[in-house]
Amino acid sequence: MPERLRLVDLVNARLEQFLDERATQLGSIADDLAVFTDASRDLLSGGKRFRALFCYWGWHAVAGTVRPEDLLAELDEHPDLSSIIDAAAALELFHAAALVHDDIMDNSDTRRGMPAAHRRFEADHARREWVGSAATYGTSTALLLGDLLLGWSDELLDSGLERLAEPRSARAARGEFQTMRTEVMVGQYLDIREEVAWRDAAEADLLPRAHRVVTYKSAKYSIEAPLALGGLMAGGTLEQVAALRAFGLPLGVAFQLRDDLLGVFGDPAVTGKPAGDDLREGKRTVIIALARAALPAGAVRLIDELLGDPTLSEHQIATLQATIRDSGAVETTERIIARSVAEAVAALEDAPLSRSARAELIGLSDLVTRRAH
Question: Mind telling me which Pfam families this protein's record contains (predicted)?
């Protein structure tokens, strides 16, 4: 646990340093551009740094040479460790960019208990009584913030990769990052498409389609890709990287299914988002597909009529929640989560990875799938 906390501190410090550098760069253009680094700091002040942690432990699983006391020394004394901290921080920038764009697409009002980026900029416009549409300004500025964060994630990744001793490892890691970026973008498209086009699919295809969204929108980029990125930066063999993927993908599925449960049943005081937010947004998740498959026709019609209505009342949210619970979908989802975690942990048995990393990854598997937010 102390090592985990120290890693988070190192990633946070690198992000702060990077944003300070970008604030200086933007400030040389115009003082007005501080809105971007200010919003970035606020957005990055939250989060659990799971992607950064998995990136580091993917690296450690292959390298296996860093001692806990090394994390307390200056990073300049450990160039490989410095490189992986940059890559881990780059993943957090990428995640922040995805959140900004995701909140625009979902028309979300909050993120981590604060106004979503587009709402923040919209409120700034209204407070200053500027001309034109506050909503349009908010959305446009947030889109640019997301684009900046995407570009900055590339810059920070490259700063780490260029210090690696082995160019082949750097090329492999860059390829992994590019693949991850493509997969999460198309996964996001499949998610928003499913919200509007689900009627075109055969009933039997709804669950596999929902699972495909889980895989590409979240599971791969949340856990599998960070693990593989770290392993490749350490020069991992095909067998080692395959073991990291075999652990990461089922755990990533379990991670997202937990997130989907929280999106329907989570406590707003804990999650920082309104109760039943995924219901108002019309998310066609695995939970919804399982519920529809188990419910009688009348209850299915109720779900289809209410799901995706942004004006749902608290009573209607409670009705949908009760209907989903009555279907048995929650229990089924919990079983899938448990089975996926077991599959992930089994993949580490006898894997050609460092013993300390395997132990830490098992601990992280419990942390990411039993969380309340």
Answer: polyprenyl_synt
For residue range 218-268, what is the model confidence (pLDDT) as tens digits?
Answer: 999 999 999 999 999 999 999 999 999 999 999 999 999 999 999 999 888
- To the question of pTM greater than 0.90 for the whole model, the response is yes
Domain ranges of the chain: 2-369
Q: Which residue has the tokens 């529809």?
A: 292
Task: Transcribe 169-226 into DSSP letters.
Answer: HHHHHHHHHHHHHHHHHHHHHHHHHHHHHGGGS-GGGHHHHHHHHIIIIIIIIIIIHH
Query: Token digits for 191?
Result: 């998610």
Q: How do residues 15-31 score in pLDDT, each as one tens digit?
A: 999 999 999 999 999 99
Cα angle, residue 116 at apex, residues 111 and 118 outer, rounded to 5°: 160
Residue 300 CA to residue 293 CA, distance in Å, equals 8
Q: Which CATH superfamily is domain 2-369 in?
A: Farnesyl Diphosphate Synthase (1.10.600.10)
